[in-house]
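Chapter summary example.
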Amino acid sequence: MGTLTATDGSAMELLELLLLLAGSLAVTAFARWRGLPAPLLVVAVALLVSFIPGVPPIHIDSEVILTVILPPLLYSASLDVSFQNFRQSLVPIRRLGIFLVLVTALVVGFVAYNLIPDMTLPAAILVGAVVAPPDAVSAAAIGRKLGLPRKVMAVISGESLINDAASLTLVKVFLLIIGGAALSIGQDLGIFALAIGVGVGVGLVLGVVAHFIRMRVKDPVVETVIGLILPFLAYIVAEQLEGSGVLAVVAAGLYVGYNSPKSGYAARLQERPIWAAADVTLEGFVFALIGLQLKTVVSDVGASGRSIGESVGVAFVVLGVVILVRPAFIFATYYWSRVMRRFVYSRLRRFRRARVTRMIWGRADPKLTWQQLTVISWTGMRGVVTLAAAVSIPESVKGHVVSARDTMFLIAFVVTTGTLLLQGLTLPSVIRKLKVQDLQQAERDVQAELRLVSNSTQEAVGYLDKRRDAWAKEWGDEPIDRGIVILKERLQRQDAAFRQGMREDRDEAEEVEAEQASGSSEGSVGAEGRSGETSPGGEGSASGGAESAAEAESSAAAESEAEAVEMPSLERGSDLRSTPHVAVADITPDPTLVKPSRNNARALASIRRELLQKRREVVLRERDAGNLDEEVMRRVLLGLDAEELAMDTSAVARTRS
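The structure predicted for these 657 residues follows.
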C-alpha cells in the first residue's frame, strides 16, 4: 500500500494527516456555509498554505489515490447517476469520455513535443494522456446549484465516469512504448478492448453478487458493509485481471444504484449519510493535496536544472491547448454527427424500415442547443485522476528514462489548478449569461410527484379491497374491516396534505423569485442557500406537505405512543443544510390503530407494511416505464422508507416498555 510522504522520504506523520483532513474539512464547511464551490476554495487555500514557512512539501504515492481514494469517489458518484439519463446520453458520453480523451492526448502531445526539446514523442503523448480527463466534481456541484438541465448534467457526470479509464489505459500503453515495447495499432486497440471488457464484466458480476447477497441478508449493517467493500474489491480484481478498475467500479455502482430501491429500506437510509460524509472528506482531502503540490513542483523543476520560467511558460501553453481543444471537439463532432445521421438515415430508410435503420445507425444524440454545448465545453476542470496519473509516472521504464518527467508534473499541476480556478470560477457566470438553467424543471418535478402520489394512493386503496378476504381469514373480519376504513382515510389525508404543501411551497417560491427579481444579487442567493430554503421541485418539495400534514394531525400525534420522526434527504451532492422534513403525521401510526389487542396491532402493522411495499412497486414501475425521473423517485422512496422506520421504531419502543 502506498503512502503519502514528505520530501525526505519519511511517511507522513499521523498528526500531519489529521491536520490536513481537518483543514480541508474546515474550508469545505466554510464554503458550503457561504454557498461557494468547495473544491475551488480548498485548492486556493492549499496553494497559499504550501508557501507558509515550516509546511513540509508532500510527495504523493499514486497507489494511495488510485486504490484508496478514487474507488469510493467513483462508486458514490455512480450510485447517484440516473441510469435512464445515462443511457439516453450514451452517445455524447461515449464520444467525450473516450474519443475526446484520445484527441486531447494527441494534440497536447504534438504541442509538448515541439515545445520541449528533450521530450520524446511517446513521452509527449503520455503527458497529454495525463491531462486529458476532466473531473466533474466541481462542475456538477455548480450545475446542481444553478439548475442546469438534467440532460446536460447527465453528459457531464457520465463523461467523468468513463474518461478516467480511457486516460489511465492510454498512460499504460505509452509507458509500455517508452519501455521499448513495439506495439501496433491492433495491439493498442486490444489493450483498450481488454481494459473495457474485463472492467465492465468484473464490475457487473460483483454488482450482481453484492445485490444478491444484500437482498437476502436482511441485516442493514452487513448490507452497508458490503456496499463499502464493493468499490475497492471491484477495482483491485479488475486491475489484477488487466482490466480497467475504474470501469469496474462504475459498472458495479450503476448496477447497485439502479437496483437499490429493491433492497431493504434500513440499508438505504444508513448508506446515504455514510457516502455523503465520505464524499466531503475525500474530495476535500484530494483538492487540498493538489494545492499543496505547488512548492514540490517548483523545487523539482529547479533541481532538474531547467529554467523555471520556460517550463511554466510551456505549461501555460498546454493549459490553453487543453481548454481550446474541448469546445472545438464538442461542437465539431456534435453537428457532424447530426448531419451524417440525417444523411445516412435518409438513404437507408428507402430500403429498410425506420426501426431497423435506427438499430443499424445507433442511438441518436440528445438535442442540445449551442448554449448548452458551450456550457459543456467549459466544464473541463481537471482533478484527482490527472494528479494520480502524473505522480504514477516512474523515472524509468525497463531501463529507458522517461524524458522531462519533472516538466510533466509541472504541466499536470498547472493544467489541474488552472482549469479549476479559471473555468471553475467563471462557469457560474457562463451559465447565467447564456441562460442555460432549466427553470421549469422544478415545476415538472412537482407535477410528476403529484401524479405519483395520486396514482400510488389509488392503487393502495384498491389493494386494500383486493386483499381484504385474505387478511380476514388470517386476522378476522372485525379488525380488518375497521383497519381498512381507517387506512383509507389516512391515505386520503396524506394525499390532501401533500397537495396543500405543494401549493404552499409554490407560493413561497414565487415570493422569493419576486424579491430576487426586484433587488436580487448573488448575496441574496447565498443567503437563501444559508437559510436552508429549497426550490419547490427540489428536495424540499415535500417539506410543505410534511408541515401541513403535521399541523393537521398534531393533536392526534401527541396522543400516539409513537414518536415523531424526521428523516432528512441525504442525497449525495445535495446541500445537506436544506433537507426536507418528512411529514410527522405521514410516518406516525394513527392513534386509533393502537388497540389493546396485540393481535389487532400485529394485523394492522402487517397491512401497513404491505401497503408500503405496494407503493414502492408503483414507484419502481413508473421509473422503469420512463415516466419518473430517478431524482423524484429517490425523494418519494425516502418518505416511504422513513414511514417504515417510524413503524419499526414504535414497535421497538413498545416492546421495551
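To summarize the output: The first strand starts at residue 4 and ends at 6.
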